[in-house]
TrEMBL record:
Organism of origin: Syntrophus gentianae
Alphabetized UniProt keyword annotations: Hydrolase
Secreted is among the record's keywords: no
Classification via Gene3D superfamilies: alpha/beta hydrolase
Protein name, as recorded: Predicted hydrolase of the alpha/beta superfamily
Amino acid sequence: MSTIHILTDFYSYPEEMTRTLRIYIPDAYDEDPDSRFPVLYMLDGQNVFNHPASALYHTWCANSTMDRLISEGCLRPWIIVAVDSSPGRFAEYSPWDEPAVGSKGRGWLIADFLVHHLKPFIDRTYRTLPEPFWTAVMGSSMGGLMSLVLGKAFPDMFGRIGAVSPTVMWAEGEIYRLWDAPTGRWCKIYLDVGSEERYWYYDIFLDFVEAADHFYGHLKRIGLQDHELRYVLEPGASHDEQAWQARLPQIFSWLLEDARGV
């Protein structure tokens, strides 16, 4: 059976705070002690796994999905490192301020933690394939925005980016200015949104559908090609973990596949 290791009070020096890590280890890790494994980093880790210690009843069920895809021969085994968010999620998942909700962006601090502290720890502790080709980052909503930030700012770390229902309209579209050109490295970007993701957040109307479609067009205009970018508009899907869980198999199958032609 696959296992999930939970590390509480893992200290983030850049942020001067502790975080909880939830680490999925596939069966093959113990069955084949000579093999090394690719790693997927997922944000909002408390909502990622089908596990009694998760924060929500309905989660992404990423462990169950990975187990099934591996058993069906659809995917090679990946390690999944799920990093819990904090109560200051708006600030930690954006490098930029958002005056509309009074959020002061501190996203570069968690980026520093992930790139210079957490990933080296994971690569030291587990038998990983550390190259960007074998390293993915994924999140939803603000976590999707932060995944796009990490993939662009650190292409030598993260070659695969999962931006699920991303909040690309945040901070007046600063993500467009960051993504002003391709990374210049091999990459795969999965971008999606549900057709029902339009709602009011206090006094702000959030149209994720229009925002995701526009950002997809932007990525195409700056030169990303179809083999490195996939965009999905999911009919009838809303902005929640149940919707993301439902389409996770197709996300994993494309984003984490053993890419050809490289």
